[in-house]
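REVIEWER CHECKLIST
Item 1: Sequence provided? yes
Item 2: Single chain? yes
Item 3: Sequence as submitted:
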Amino acid sequence: MSTKNKQDGIRSRIKNILSTLSPGFTTYLMYLYNFKRLPDFDNPKDINDWLQRLKLREYYHNPVITKCVDKYRVREYIKSKGLEHILPNLYIGGVDNPYDLRNYWDKFPDKLVLKCNHGCGYNILINDKSSIRVDDVIDQLKEWLNEDWWKNYCEPQYMDIKKCILAEEYLGDAIKTYKFYCFRGEPKVMYVSANGEKGEKDLYLDYFDMNWNWLDISLAGHQHKPNCYEKPASFDEMVKISRILAKDFPFVRVDLYDVAGNVYFSELTFIPTGGNMKLTPSTHLKEWGEWMKL
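Item 4: Structure as written out by the authors:
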């Protein structure tokens, strides 16, 4: 193991311990490290201040938020909004023992997506089931289920999720994700994310307003796509769906897919980038903070 990997591992363990002991203290510490100042909850200066405030106050141990960040139980919320038609087909859900997959494996289609419900990045995309050993899948899911993802970035909105496995429809290869930032129920800005030519996850992020005007905004760690995107035919429908799903929340990012003109639900994200967004130009952080004011 390299020195850098050892250092990263030590930092991760320290962060996990601190998150367990005090999510509030850890939030202040991480914010100070990232921005060289403490967050201001009483007079938020920008969108990051607002997100940290929501994380530790309005969204903390909030059962609606817990349901909506749960990759399995959020389906109930989507259905309650009359949007069941945008949900990918569900093959299994609520399975808490990865070894139970053996009972379903032969019944699964050749292409599917397996997920753990309690964090981000816990996805196995299978486009040829015959090329994968079920025992390897079980080992990966078992490892993920043993992790408390919320501690990695101190995001306690994931803390109360009852962990489980689900299997959903495989929507396609290299599909684009459309992510709508909604402030007080109104989508104001969104971005399209796409993987790089060598498979780099979400290498490209390009921001647009609600009239599909490209915005010169960069998020740290990402690039603009060399050839800009065409407006999808489903864009107006996605804006409408985002408005419906955002109505109940001070802030949420509604993540959707467009597959051959059909809109599918991806997830609801309440504290994007853990409330530590680094945008260029940074003036947008204050502008987005202004949109949070009543």
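Item 5: Key structural point noted by reviewer: The mean pLDDT is 93.
Item 6: Recommendation: ____
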